[in-house]
Amino acid sequence: MDIEEMPSVGQYYAGKSMFVTGATGFIGKVLIEKLLRCCPNISTIYLLIRPKKGQSIEQRLEDMVQNRLFDKLRKERPNFEEVLRPIQGDIMADKLGVSDHDSQLLAEEVEIVFHSAATIRFDEHIRLAMEMNVKAVRKMIVLCRTFKKLQVFVHVSTAYANCDRPFIEESVYEPAVEPQKLVDALDWMDDEMLSTITPKLLGQKPNTYTFTKQLAEYLLCKEGSDLPIAIVRPSIVGAAWKEPLPGWIDNFNGPSGLYIAAGKGILRSVKCEFKAVADIVPVDIPVNMLITVAWYTAVAKPTSILIYHCTTGSVNPFTWGEMESVVLNFFKKTPLEAAFRRPNVSMTNNSLLHDYWVFVSHMIPAYLTDLGYSLLGKKPRMVKIYNRLHRTMGTLTYFTCHSWEWTYNNLDMLKNQLLPEDRKMFYLDPRPLHWPHYIENYCLGIKQFILNEDMSGLPAARAHLRKLRNIRYTFNSILMVVLWRVLIARSHLARNLWYLIMGLVSKFVKNFWITSSMRH
Predict the structure, then answer these.
(1) Is the Cα torsion angle 268, 272, 275, 281 positive or negative in sign?
(2) Tell me: the pLDDT tens digits for 384-393?
(3) Rounded Cα gap, residues 25 and 117, in angstroms
(4) Distance between CA atoms of 92 and 117, rounded to whole angstroms?
(5) Are 485 and 358 in contact (CB under 8 A)?
(6) Residues 493-519, mean pLDDT to the nearest whole number
(7) Which residue spans within 71-207 are E strands per DSSP?
(8) What pLDDT does 208 receive?
(9) E-only strand ranges, 206-316
């Protein structure tokens, strides 16, 4: 179809019904908000939601739409939630846990599918990762085959599905393990046996997340080749760049947890390659890509499954070292409340040096603080916090010490197919992104949206930071004096040097006092 004959994105979505998994997740919420705000004539969005913590699916949906993320949409369309319809289900359950009645409803109505539900924990046990990231894809294929009006099925993967390769093309690579063989092994292997063979299964991949995401892509292309499928591969998805709120973020995943730990003064050392690219992509870019990829796949009907990379490192690189200075400077000017210490982080790729700083700057203060809590009758917590932080850091080390390159042929083609107004509304190009400004908004978003800290508390937070600085200077001064006195007691040379320094200081102070007195 020629570009002149293709409908605009908004025109295509008018009157459409769609099915979204992972709707209550980070990408899912932003996707729904953008669809409803920029494609206002959508018929129905069916959301796969599971009951959780005593909440029904209706209550979970109500909590979701009350999020500040939807404030802009709420002003423009006060009754936008009427388009949303929750469907009870669970990707872990047989047939996704969808009832026969709801399955029949979806089969008759759904035209567009967005599948973003998955476990994104890097250290997930291989059994659970396989259930959520691989076997769930097979269940989605079976369900989608029943959809009589299906026009497109967009699968959210990850740019790191093939991270054992430094250069990644827009193709599905054959995995080292046939997915079905591993699925069969899950039936008879116990968890201990699976844990034992997991390192061998992963090969050069760093974790079960990237491993199972590659298997999911392969299974999707092999078993769903008769369906109109497209795959989008985002890198590390971070806070919003422009829409709907600059800096909006609602989770501790990716760099968010490290930013908080750095801002609180808890994180003091990161194992990292200073010049490695921090391939973070603002959440609004992959969301725009999901919407436009679905549009293109349904309208143009490509003859093969197309892969779209959604990354920033190859076109607008920003290193972890550059990020460190922006984050620390921001939190020194706009500190988080109740900081443990003043923000200060060292980066090193040397394992021995990193382990030394972890011991000196993390564990010793943690144990001393917990000792203080115990003496005051409070529950110790700092060692537990640091152990959790170290586990998180361990899962991210692989990504902070490596860089990758991706191809973008399909993305370039997609941008060229968009009408000028759609290219502006559903922006896909990260090159205009100004990283320092974005990272500052990211940190501010963490303060406001995750930690719920009001800006009116900023003066008190700054005063607390000054107090911590004074405590640090006092402690260091006392420590230096004590160490020096110990050296003096043992060394005649050190004692003479000490007296010489103190004599010079005394003369300087006396001369300064005399000069000041004469001037007055």
Answers:
(1) negative
(2) 999 999 998 8
(3) 8
(4) 10
(5) no
(6) 68
(7) 84-88, 112-115, 152-156, 167-168
(8) 93
(9) 229-234, 236-238, 269-271, 280-282, 306-310
Q: Residues with Cβ < 8 Å from 327, sequence gap 6 or more? A: 259, 262, 263, 343, 345, 439, 443
Question: What does each C-alpha distance from 342 to 269, 453, 461, 469, 485 come to in angstroms?
Answer: 13, 18, 11, 7, 28
Residues 6+ apart with CB under 8 A from 9: 38, 39, 291, 292, 295, 418, 419, 422, 425, 426
What are the Cα distances from residue 480, in Å, to 342, 469, 485, 504? 20, 16, 8, 18
Q: Which two tokens stand for residue 9?
A: 């994105």
What is the mean pLDDT of the segment spanning 263-279? 93
Average pLDDT of the segment spanning 450-469:
90
Q: Tokens 């979505």 — which residue?
A: 13
Tokens representing 281?
């992509």
Q: Measure the CA–CA gap between 292 and 308, rounded to whole angstroms.
A: 11
| Nearest to 57, CA basis, from 86, 34, 22 | 86
Q: Is 268 in contact with 345 (CB distance < 8 Å)?
A: yes
Instruction: List the one residue out of 412, 438, 437 whose CA is nearest residue 423.
Output: 412
Between helix 136-144 and helix 208-223 the angle, nearest 10°, is 30
For residue range 343-364, list pLDDT tens digits in order.
Answer: 999 899 999 999 999 999 999 9
pLDDT digits (tens, 9 = 90+) for 35-92: 999 998 999 999 999 998 888 999 999 999 999 999 999 998 888 999 999 999 999 9
Q: What is the pLDDT of residue 504?
A: 77
| Bridge partners, 55 (sequence order) | 52
At which residue do the structure tokens 């009116």 appear? 456
Tell which residue, 437, 463, 396, 404, has the closest CA to residue 262. 396
pLDDT at 508 over 80: no
Supply the mean pLDDT for the chain: 90
Q: How far apart are the two ends of the chain, measured CA to CA in Å?
A: 90
**What is the distance between the alpha carbons of residues 371 and 382, in angstroms, rounded to a whole number?**
10
- In one letter, which amino acid is 286? P
pTM of the predicted model over 0.85: yes
70-79 contact pairs (CB < 8 A, 24+):
70/33, 70/244, 71/244, 71/245, 72/37, 72/244, 72/245, 73/33, 73/36, 73/37, 73/244, 76/37, 77/36, 77/37, 77/40
CATH code for 3-248+277-317+404-431? 3.40.50.720
Residue 431: φ, ψ to 5°: -65, -35
For the ranges 292-301, 343-352, 460-469, 494-503, the one whose mean pLDDT is highest: 292-301
pLDDT at position 417, please?
A: 94
Partners of residue 48 on adjacent β-strands: 87
Contact 53, 24 (CB under 8 A): no
Predicted pLDDT at 505? 73
Strands 167-168 and 112-115: unpaired
- pLDDT over threshold 60, residue 326: yes
